[in-house]
Design the sequence.
Protein backbone atom coordinates (compact mmCIF):
# COMPACT_ATOMS: atom_id res chain seq x y z
CA UNK A 1 0.00 0.00 0.00
CA UNK A 2 2.05 2.86 -1.34
CA UNK A 3 -0.04 5.59 0.28
CA UNK A 4 0.38 4.36 3.87
CA UNK A 5 3.43 5.02 6.03
CA UNK A 6 4.16 2.69 8.95
CA UNK A 7 5.64 3.94 12.23
CA UNK A 8 6.53 1.50 15.03
CA UNK A 9 6.94 2.93 18.53
CA UNK A 10 9.36 1.19 20.93
CA UNK A 11 8.69 3.47 23.91
CA UNK A 12 5.90 1.37 25.45
CA UNK A 13 6.44 0.58 29.16
CA UNK A 14 8.47 -2.57 29.90
CA UNK A 15 8.62 -2.60 33.70
CA UNK A 16 6.12 -5.46 33.90
CA UNK A 17 8.37 -7.75 31.85
CA UNK A 18 11.09 -7.58 34.48
CA UNK A 19 14.22 -9.57 33.63
CA UNK A 20 13.17 -10.12 30.00
CA UNK A 21 13.80 -6.46 29.17
CA UNK A 22 16.86 -5.69 31.28
CA UNK A 23 19.15 -5.88 28.25
CA UNK A 24 16.67 -5.62 25.35
CA UNK A 25 13.84 -3.42 24.20
CA UNK A 26 10.29 -4.82 24.09
CA UNK A 27 10.39 -5.43 20.35
CA UNK A 28 13.40 -7.75 20.75
CA UNK A 29 11.79 -10.06 23.33
CA UNK A 30 11.78 -13.65 21.93
CA UNK A 31 8.35 -15.17 21.32
CA UNK A 32 6.94 -18.36 19.87
CA UNK A 33 10.10 -20.42 19.41
CA UNK A 34 11.79 -18.43 16.67
CA UNK A 35 10.24 -14.95 16.53
CA UNK A 36 10.66 -11.58 18.26
CA UNK A 37 7.70 -9.46 19.39
CA UNK A 38 8.35 -6.79 16.73
CA UNK A 39 7.99 -9.40 13.95
CA UNK A 40 4.20 -9.26 14.19
CA UNK A 41 3.74 -5.52 13.77
CA UNK A 42 6.46 -5.36 11.10
CA UNK A 43 5.02 -8.29 9.13
CA UNK A 44 1.46 -6.92 9.36
CA UNK A 45 2.66 -3.70 7.76
CA UNK A 46 4.60 -5.44 4.99
CA UNK A 47 1.72 -7.86 4.29
CA UNK A 48 -0.51 -4.82 3.71
CA UNK A 49 1.88 -3.53 1.06
CA UNK A 50 3.48 -0.84 3.24
CA UNK A 51 6.95 -0.14 1.89
CA UNK A 52 8.04 2.72 4.13
CA UNK A 53 8.43 1.78 7.80
CA UNK A 54 10.06 3.97 10.44
CA UNK A 55 11.07 2.46 13.79
CA UNK A 56 11.27 4.90 16.70
CA UNK A 57 14.21 3.64 18.74
CA UNK A 58 14.59 4.11 22.46
CA UNK A 59 17.06 2.49 24.84
CA UNK A 60 18.51 -1.08 24.85
CA UNK A 61 18.01 -1.46 21.09
CA UNK A 62 21.21 -3.42 20.32
CA UNK A 63 19.54 -6.89 20.20
CA UNK A 64 16.75 -5.44 18.07
CA UNK A 65 19.17 -4.08 15.47
CA UNK A 66 20.92 -7.45 15.35
CA UNK A 67 17.57 -9.06 14.64
CA UNK A 68 16.12 -6.76 11.97
CA UNK A 69 19.43 -5.60 10.41
CA UNK A 70 18.55 -3.89 7.09
CA UNK A 71 15.01 -5.29 6.88
CA UNK A 72 15.83 -7.90 4.22
CA UNK A 73 13.61 -10.59 5.77
CA UNK A 74 10.64 -8.22 5.37
CA UNK A 75 11.61 -7.01 1.88
CA UNK A 76 12.41 -3.56 3.26
CA UNK A 77 16.03 -3.27 2.10
CA UNK A 78 15.02 -0.96 -0.73
CA UNK A 79 16.63 1.93 -2.56
CA UNK A 80 13.38 3.88 -2.38
CA UNK A 81 11.41 3.91 0.84
CA UNK A 82 12.33 0.84 2.93
CA UNK A 83 13.04 0.56 6.66
CA UNK A 84 14.30 3.57 8.61
CA UNK A 85 15.77 3.46 12.13
CA UNK A 86 14.79 6.69 13.87
CA UNK A 87 17.04 7.44 16.86
CA UNK A 88 15.81 9.19 19.97
CA UNK A 89 17.52 12.42 21.06
CA UNK A 90 20.41 11.79 23.43
CA UNK A 91 18.64 13.88 26.05
CA UNK A 92 15.13 15.27 26.14
CA UNK A 93 14.45 18.98 26.46
CA UNK A 94 13.48 18.44 30.09
CA UNK A 95 16.88 16.91 30.82
CA UNK A 96 15.67 13.30 31.08
CA UNK A 97 17.67 10.48 29.56
CA UNK A 98 14.97 8.31 27.95
CA UNK A 99 12.57 10.00 25.58
CA UNK A 100 8.87 9.58 24.77
CA UNK A 101 7.11 8.99 21.45
CA UNK A 102 6.06 12.64 21.00
CA UNK A 103 9.59 13.92 21.62
CA UNK A 104 11.01 11.19 19.41
CA UNK A 105 8.60 12.03 16.59
CA UNK A 106 9.55 15.69 16.86
CA UNK A 107 13.24 14.75 16.76
CA UNK A 108 12.56 12.81 13.53
CA UNK A 109 10.19 15.33 11.98
CA UNK A 110 12.32 15.49 8.83
CA UNK A 111 11.61 11.83 8.15
CA UNK A 112 7.86 12.45 8.35
CA UNK A 113 8.05 15.47 6.04
CA UNK A 114 10.11 13.68 3.39
CA UNK A 115 7.95 10.55 3.32
CA UNK A 116 5.84 10.42 0.17
CA UNK A 117 2.82 8.74 1.77
CA UNK A 118 -0.37 10.67 2.54
CA UNK A 119 -1.50 8.53 5.49
CA UNK A 120 0.34 7.08 8.47
CA UNK A 121 -0.35 4.17 10.81
CA UNK A 122 1.29 4.63 14.19
CA UNK A 123 1.63 1.44 16.22
CA UNK A 124 3.28 0.13 19.34
CA UNK A 125 4.76 -3.36 19.15
CA UNK A 126 3.41 -4.98 22.33
CA UNK A 127 0.41 -6.60 20.58
CA UNK A 128 1.05 -9.97 18.94
CA UNK A 129 -1.67 -10.34 16.36
CA UNK A 130 -2.22 -10.85 12.64
CA UNK A 131 -4.42 -8.13 11.14
CA UNK A 132 -5.16 -6.48 7.82
CA UNK A 133 -3.98 -2.85 7.73
CA UNK A 134 -5.44 -2.45 4.25
CA UNK A 135 -8.91 -3.02 5.71
CA UNK A 136 -8.16 -0.49 8.46
CA UNK A 137 -7.26 2.22 5.94
CA UNK A 138 -10.31 1.40 3.81
CA UNK A 139 -12.53 1.80 6.90
CA UNK A 140 -10.78 5.06 7.77
CA UNK A 141 -11.47 6.47 4.30
CA UNK A 142 -15.05 5.22 4.27
CA UNK A 143 -15.83 6.97 7.56
CA UNK A 144 -13.94 10.12 6.50
CA UNK A 145 -12.33 9.92 9.92
CA UNK A 146 -9.61 12.15 11.28
CA UNK A 147 -8.21 9.27 13.33
CA UNK A 148 -9.10 5.57 13.40
CA UNK A 149 -8.23 3.52 16.49
CA UNK A 150 -7.90 -0.27 16.14
CA UNK A 151 -9.48 -2.21 18.99
CA UNK A 152 -10.30 -5.75 20.06
CA UNK A 153 -13.59 -6.48 21.77
CA UNK A 154 -12.52 -8.58 24.75
CA UNK A 155 -12.12 -8.16 28.49
CA UNK A 156 -8.95 -10.30 28.39
CA UNK A 157 -6.76 -7.33 27.44
CA UNK A 158 -8.06 -5.39 30.44
CA UNK A 159 -6.40 -8.00 32.65
CA UNK A 160 -2.98 -6.76 31.51
CA UNK A 161 -2.68 -2.99 32.13
CA UNK A 162 -1.85 -0.45 30.91
CA UNK A 163 -4.79 -0.40 28.53
CA UNK A 164 -7.26 2.07 27.05
CA UNK A 165 -10.98 1.27 27.01
CA UNK A 166 -13.49 3.25 24.97
CA UNK A 167 -17.14 3.52 24.04
CA UNK A 168 -18.41 3.94 20.48
CA UNK A 169 -21.68 4.97 18.91
CA UNK A 170 -23.54 2.64 16.54
CA UNK A 171 -21.74 4.20 13.57
CA UNK A 172 -18.35 3.46 15.13
CA UNK A 173 -17.47 6.97 16.30
CA UNK A 174 -15.62 7.02 19.62
CA UNK A 175 -17.63 8.75 22.35
CA UNK A 176 -15.41 8.25 25.37
CA UNK A 177 -11.96 6.92 26.33
CA UNK A 178 -10.45 5.92 29.65
CA UNK A 179 -6.91 4.87 30.57
CA UNK A 180 -6.81 1.98 33.07
CA UNK A 181 -10.31 2.62 34.50
CA UNK A 182 -10.90 1.27 38.00
CA UNK A 183 -14.09 -0.44 36.84
CA UNK A 184 -13.88 -1.32 33.16
CA UNK A 185 -17.42 -1.64 31.77
CA UNK A 186 -16.40 -1.56 28.11
CA UNK A 187 -15.10 -4.59 26.24
CA UNK A 188 -13.53 -2.41 23.54
CA UNK A 189 -9.80 -2.20 24.25
CA UNK A 190 -7.35 -0.21 22.11
CA UNK A 191 -4.51 -2.09 20.39
CA UNK A 192 -2.33 1.05 20.38
CA UNK A 193 -2.66 1.39 16.60
CA UNK A 194 -3.91 4.62 15.00
CA UNK A 195 -4.42 5.67 11.37
CA UNK A 196 -4.50 9.34 10.36
CA UNK A 197 -3.33 11.70 7.66
CA UNK A 198 0.38 12.35 7.87
CA UNK A 199 -0.12 16.10 8.00
CA UNK A 200 -2.45 15.71 11.00
CA UNK A 201 0.19 13.60 12.75
CA UNK A 202 2.80 16.30 12.14
CA UNK A 203 0.45 18.99 13.46
CA UNK A 204 -0.23 16.98 16.63
CA UNK A 205 3.49 16.40 17.15
CA UNK A 206 4.34 20.09 16.66
CA UNK A 207 1.58 21.40 18.93
CA UNK A 208 1.86 19.00 21.86
CA UNK A 209 5.60 18.37 21.96
CA UNK A 210 6.11 22.16 22.12
CA UNK A 211 3.95 22.12 25.25
CA UNK A 212 6.06 19.45 26.96
CA UNK A 213 3.58 16.65 26.34
CA UNK A 214 5.04 13.18 26.01
CA UNK A 215 2.56 10.57 24.79
CA UNK A 216 0.84 10.80 21.40
CA UNK A 217 -2.37 9.04 22.40
CA UNK A 218 -3.05 10.08 26.00
CA UNK A 219 -1.80 13.67 25.71
CA UNK A 220 -2.43 14.59 22.06
CA UNK A 221 -5.32 12.44 20.78
CA UNK A 222 -7.52 11.88 23.85
CA UNK A 223 -7.84 15.61 24.64
CA UNK A 224 -9.14 16.21 21.10
CA UNK A 225 -11.92 13.62 21.31
CA UNK A 226 -14.68 16.20 21.05
CA UNK A 227 -12.99 18.08 18.24
CA UNK A 228 -11.65 15.35 15.94
CA UNK A 229 -13.68 12.64 14.24
CA UNK A 230 -12.22 9.55 15.92
CA UNK A 231 -13.58 6.14 14.88
CA UNK A 232 -12.93 2.62 16.15
CA UNK A 233 -12.09 -0.30 13.86
CA UNK A 234 -12.70 -3.74 15.37
CA UNK A 235 -10.09 -6.44 14.81
CA UNK A 236 -11.71 -9.77 15.61
CA UNK A 237 -8.67 -12.06 15.52
CA UNK A 238 -6.46 -13.28 18.33
CA UNK A 239 -4.55 -10.61 20.26
CA UNK A 240 -1.88 -11.03 22.91
CA UNK A 241 -0.69 -8.02 24.95
CA UNK A 242 2.96 -8.58 25.84
CA UNK A 243 3.39 -6.17 28.76
CA UNK A 244 4.02 -8.33 31.83
CA UNK A 245 5.63 -11.65 32.71
CA UNK A 246 2.18 -13.13 33.32
CA UNK A 247 0.83 -11.99 29.94
CA UNK A 248 4.00 -13.10 28.14
CA UNK A 249 3.75 -16.56 29.68
CA UNK A 250 0.01 -16.92 29.08
CA UNK A 251 0.10 -15.81 25.44
CA UNK A 252 3.11 -18.03 24.78
CA UNK A 253 1.22 -21.02 26.17
CA UNK A 254 -1.76 -20.07 23.97
CA UNK A 255 0.39 -20.95 20.96
CA UNK A 256 0.07 -24.62 21.91
CA UNK A 257 -3.59 -24.41 20.84
CA UNK A 258 -3.75 -25.11 17.06
CA UNK A 259 -6.53 -22.57 16.43
CA UNK A 260 -4.46 -19.78 18.01
CA UNK A 261 -1.32 -20.75 16.08
CA UNK A 262 -3.23 -20.79 12.78
CA UNK A 263 -4.89 -17.42 13.41
CA UNK A 264 -1.75 -15.70 14.62
CA UNK A 265 0.67 -16.83 11.95
CA UNK A 266 -1.36 -17.23 8.76
CA UNK A 267 -4.73 -15.37 8.79
CA UNK A 268 -3.75 -12.22 6.85
CA UNK A 269 -0.33 -13.29 5.65
CA UNK A 270 2.78 -14.93 6.99
CA UNK A 271 4.74 -13.60 9.97
CA UNK A 272 8.36 -13.20 8.91
CA UNK A 273 11.45 -13.31 11.10
CA UNK A 274 15.23 -13.48 10.87
CA UNK A 275 16.21 -16.65 9.03
CA UNK A 276 18.78 -18.99 10.56
CA UNK A 277 19.85 -22.12 8.71
CA UNK A 278 20.11 -24.85 11.32
CA UNK A 279 19.78 -28.62 11.38
CA UNK A 280 16.42 -30.24 12.14
CA UNK A 281 15.57 -31.25 15.71
CA UNK A 282 17.41 -34.38 16.93
CA UNK A 283 15.21 -36.71 18.97
CA UNK A 284 17.56 -39.17 20.65
CA UNK A 285 16.75 -42.47 22.34
CA UNK A 286 14.65 -41.91 25.44
CA UNK A 287 13.15 -38.63 24.32
CA UNK A 288 9.43 -37.96 24.81
CA UNK A 289 7.70 -34.85 23.44
CA UNK A 290 4.01 -33.92 23.59
CA UNK A 291 2.00 -30.77 22.79
CA UNK A 292 5.11 -28.61 22.40
CA UNK A 293 6.78 -26.27 19.92
CA UNK A 294 10.37 -27.29 19.23
CA UNK A 295 12.51 -25.04 17.00
CA UNK A 296 15.32 -26.19 14.72
CA UNK A 297 18.76 -27.05 16.06
CA UNK A 298 17.49 -28.58 19.32
CA UNK A 299 18.73 -31.89 20.75
CA UNK A 300 16.22 -33.78 22.89
CA UNK A 301 17.06 -36.71 25.17
CA UNK A 302 14.56 -36.08 27.98
CA UNK A 303 10.83 -35.30 28.30
CA UNK A 304 9.16 -32.14 27.03
CA UNK A 305 5.45 -31.50 27.70
CA UNK A 306 3.32 -28.41 27.00
CA UNK A 307 6.40 -26.28 26.43
CA UNK A 308 8.16 -24.05 23.91
CA UNK A 309 11.81 -24.57 23.02
CA UNK A 310 13.69 -22.03 20.92
CA UNK A 311 16.52 -22.78 18.51
CA UNK A 312 19.54 -24.78 19.62
CA UNK A 313 18.32 -25.91 23.05
CA UNK A 314 20.09 -28.95 24.50
CA UNK A 315 17.89 -31.21 26.66
CA UNK A 316 20.00 -33.82 28.44
CA UNK A 317 19.02 -37.35 29.53
CA UNK A 318 16.49 -37.57 32.33
CA UNK A 319 15.43 -33.94 31.91
CA UNK A 320 11.73 -33.15 32.44
CA UNK A 321 10.35 -29.86 31.07
CA UNK A 322 6.68 -29.06 31.66
CA UNK A 323 4.69 -25.86 31.01
CA UNK A 324 7.88 -23.89 30.38
CA UNK A 325 9.60 -21.61 27.87
CA UNK A 326 13.25 -22.29 27.08
CA UNK A 327 14.97 -19.72 24.89
CA UNK A 328 17.76 -20.03 22.37
CA UNK A 329 20.87 -22.15 23.10
CA UNK A 330 19.94 -23.00 26.68
CA UNK A 331 21.63 -26.15 28.04
CA UNK A 332 19.91 -28.43 30.54
CA UNK A 333 22.13 -30.99 32.27
CA UNK A 334 21.08 -34.56 33.13
CA UNK A 335 18.16 -34.90 35.54
CA UNK A 336 17.02 -31.26 35.45
CA UNK A 337 13.33 -30.61 36.12
CA UNK A 338 11.50 -27.43 35.02
CA UNK A 339 7.86 -26.51 35.70
CA UNK A 340 6.33 -23.10 34.92
CA UNK A 341 9.75 -21.61 34.19
CA UNK A 342 11.05 -19.11 31.61
CA UNK A 343 14.72 -19.58 30.73
CA UNK A 344 16.35 -16.70 28.87
CA UNK A 345 18.92 -17.15 26.09
CA UNK A 346 22.21 -18.97 26.75
CA UNK A 347 21.24 -20.17 30.25
CA UNK A 348 22.93 -23.34 31.52
CA UNK A 349 21.24 -25.42 34.26
CA UNK A 350 23.57 -27.87 35.96
CA UNK A 351 22.67 -31.52 36.52
CA UNK A 352 19.96 -32.49 38.96
CA UNK A 353 18.48 -29.05 39.60
CA UNK A 354 14.71 -28.59 40.04
CA UNK A 355 13.09 -25.22 39.26
CA UNK A 356 9.39 -24.65 39.81
CA UNK A 357 7.33 -21.52 39.28
CA UNK A 358 3.64 -20.70 39.31
CA UNK A 359 1.39 -20.26 36.22
CA UNK A 360 0.34 -16.79 37.41
CA UNK A 361 3.94 -15.80 38.18
CA UNK A 362 6.46 -18.02 36.34
CA UNK A 363 10.06 -18.26 37.51
CA UNK A 364 12.44 -16.36 35.21
CA UNK A 365 16.11 -17.33 34.91
CA UNK A 366 18.39 -14.97 32.94
CA UNK A 367 21.80 -15.74 31.51
CA UNK A 368 23.37 -13.69 34.31
CA UNK A 369 22.12 -16.22 36.89
CA UNK A 370 24.15 -19.21 38.06
CA UNK A 371 22.00 -22.30 38.49
Sequence:
Amino acid sequence: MRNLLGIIDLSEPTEGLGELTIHRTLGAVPFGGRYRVIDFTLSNMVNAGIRNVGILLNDRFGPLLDHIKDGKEWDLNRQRDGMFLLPAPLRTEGGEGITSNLINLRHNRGYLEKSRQEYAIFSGCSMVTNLDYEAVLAYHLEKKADITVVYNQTQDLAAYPPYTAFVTAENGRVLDMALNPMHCTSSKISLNMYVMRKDLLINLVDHYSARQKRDLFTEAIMPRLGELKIYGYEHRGYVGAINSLRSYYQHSMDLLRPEVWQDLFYTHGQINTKVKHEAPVRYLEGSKVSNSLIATGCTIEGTVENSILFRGVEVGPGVVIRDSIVMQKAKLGPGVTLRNVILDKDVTISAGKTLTGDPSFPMVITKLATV
The domain at 282-365 is CATH 2.160.10.10 (UDP N-Acetylglucosamine Acyltransferase; domain 1).
